[in-house]
């Protein structure tokens, strides 16, 4: 595929910012347009190092705003979409499911409609690539999710993502829109909003606050370093086939409690604290309602068909992540206080 003008939605978020950075640096001949509405989870400080690159543009707009989307498709002659914009946190979805339906389902449908209309009659060399999650498969006690595993979402977040996956397939089937879907396991690394397990725990350890482990801490997740996911997205975007689904995972399963204890040891060591200091903060709290027990991805399809594989060792990745959060306390205070919007005003107000 010779796509040159690529729209990346949600590029100011955690995974999106790593994808934008990778594409801007690796493909100077491409034009990368990052469209993000800058919710609480989107922060342009994540992209400080590439914000002035000649092949990078930022547009502040919502995927719900079809006029803005049409304008972007027209102005930049978009011929590839990598769609990450979403509400992404399971706990929030339990309190506010309609917001998740609005952004993740209706927002995706509107983006699909605009792409389909803009590309109508000339689908050659076009691609709509939708970034999804292993959570659409539900929970699995034994074995692994393959691309053939039936969809069985169990939280409002995963229900909204599963629905958006179906709409992507429906646009492919009904209108011939070239599209792909990938479903990834839990990501970790720099720039993740501190409501998710790993950054939340690191932040609480630093501030000697309780470490809230849901239920008995026995739930299992398969963790992948975010840069490995960004590389997978790059590989699938360039080598994947329209109409296909690709699972992405780290083959790296951890019980939450074991992961939290490992983080405690790393943080104590880095802060020169007595061993056991952080672990003494572990507090078992009421479980997440409907908490999925285990996610486990079989990523053999993407590995055999594209050659991608995870390369970051977990201990090394966690250590880099802890180090990053310790050195970026100002970023943390900006994202948790609303200060991150001032950066947008400073950088983009006069453009
Ligand atoms: P995130 O919450 O960190 O970032 C989401 C981004 O989307 C933010 O920048 C936000 O401002 C933007 N956004 C939200 N609503 C928008 C709207 N209406 N219009 C435009 N932009 C909007 O999320 P993340 O963890 O980086 O996840 C990115 C994508 O990857 C999501 O689609 C998520 O479902 C998927 N995913 C995440 C993980 C994970 O472990 N974090 C794993 C698999 C798949
Ligand atoms: O599997 C991919 C998914 O991973 C993505 O699609 C989601 O966007 C992403 O948020 C993530 O979902 P999880 O619910 O697995 O991630 P979270 O970090 O919220 O929780 C990880 C595990 O840790 C989960 O079993 C719940 C538990 N947990 C979480 C928090 C925030 C705790 O025990 N305590 C906590 O405070």
List the helices and strands and how they pair.
Blueprint: E1 5-9, H1 14-26, E2 31-36, E3 56-60, H2 66-76, E4 80-83, H3 90-95, H4 97-119, E5 127-133, H5 156-175, E6 179-184, E7 186-188, H6 197-206, E8 211-214, E9 220-225, H7 226-239, E10 245-248, E11 253-255, H8 256-270, E12 282-285, H9 300-306, H10 314-327, H11 329-337, H12 340-348
Parallel strand pairs: 1-2, 1-4, 2-3, 4-5, 5-6, 6-10, 7-9, 8-12
Antiparallel strand pairs: 9-11
The chain binds nicotinamide-adenine-dinucleotide and 2'deoxy-thymidine-5'-diphospho-alpha-D-glucose (DAU).
Low-confidence stretches: none
Mean pLDDT: 96
Number of strands: 12
Write down the CATH class of the domain at 5-191 and 224-250 and 294-312.
Answer: Alpha Beta
Q: Which hetero ligands occur in this complex? A: nicotinamide-adenine-dinucleotide, 2'deoxy-thymidine-5'-diphospho-alpha-D-glucose
CATH architecture of the domain at 5-191 and 224-250 and 294-312: 3-Layer(aba) Sandwich
Order of helices and strands: EHEEHEHHEHEEHEEHEEHEHHHH
The CATH homologous superfamily of the domain at 5-191 and 224-250 and 294-312 is named: NAD(P)-binding Rossmann-like Domain
Q: Overall 3D geometry?
A: globular
Major sheet characteristics: 7 strands, parallel
* DSSP helical segment count: 12
What percentage of the residues does DSSP assign to strands (E)?
15-25%
Determine the structural class based on helices, strands and strand pairing: alpha/beta
Q: Provide the spatial order of strands within the biggest beta sheet.
A: 3-2-1-4-5-6-10
Radius of gyration of CA atoms, rounded to a whole number: 20 Å
- Say what the CATH topology of the domain at 5-191 and 224-250 and 294-312 is: Rossmann fold
What is the percent of helical residues? 40-55%
Q: Quote the distance from N terminus to C terminus.
A: 32 Å
């Amino acid at each position: 595929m010779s796509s040159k003008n690529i729209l990346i939605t949600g590029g100011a978020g955690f995974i999106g910012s790593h994808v934008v950075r990778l594409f801007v640096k690796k493909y100077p001949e491409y034009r990368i347009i990052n469209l993000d509405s800058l919710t609480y989870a989107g922060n342009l400080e994540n992209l400080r190092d590439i914000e002035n690159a000649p092949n990078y543009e930022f547009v502040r707009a919502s995927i719900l705003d079809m006029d803005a989307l049409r304008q972007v498709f027209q102005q930049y002659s978009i011929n590839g979409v990598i769609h990450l914009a979403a509400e992404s946190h399971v706990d929030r979805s339990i309190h506010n499911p309609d917001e998740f339906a609005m952004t993740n389902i209706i927002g995706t449908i509107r983006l699909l409609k605009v792409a389909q209309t803009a590309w109508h009659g000339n689908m050659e060399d076009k691609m709509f690539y939708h970034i999804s999650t292993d959570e659409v498969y539900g929970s699995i006690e034994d074995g692994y999710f393959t691309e053939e595993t039936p969809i069985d979402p169990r939280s409002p977040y995963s229900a909204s993502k599963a629905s958006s996956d179906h709409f992507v397939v429906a646009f492919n089937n009904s209108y011939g829109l070239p599209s792909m879907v990938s479903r990834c396991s839990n990501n970790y690394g720099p720039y993740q909003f501190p409501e998710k397990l790993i950054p939340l725990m690191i932040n609480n350890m630093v501030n000697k606050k309780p470490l809230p482990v849901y239920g008995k801490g026995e739930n299992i997740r398969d963790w992948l370093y975010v840069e490995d996911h960004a590389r997978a997205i790059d590989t699938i975007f360039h080598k994947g086939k329209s109409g296909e689904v690709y699972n992405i995972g780290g083959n790296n399963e951890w019980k939450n409690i074991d992961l939290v204890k490992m983080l405690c040891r790393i943080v104590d060591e880095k802060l020169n604290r007595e061993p056991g200091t952080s672990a003494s903060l572990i507090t078992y709290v009421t479980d997440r309602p409907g908490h999925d027990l285990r996610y486990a991805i079989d990523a053999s399809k993407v590995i055999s068909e594209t050659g991608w594989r995870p390369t970051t060792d977990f201990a090394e990745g966690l250590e880099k992540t802890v180090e990053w959060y310790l050195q970026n306390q100002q970023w943390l205070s900006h994202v948790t206080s609303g200060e991150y919007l001032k950066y947008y005003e400073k950088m983009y107000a006069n453009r």
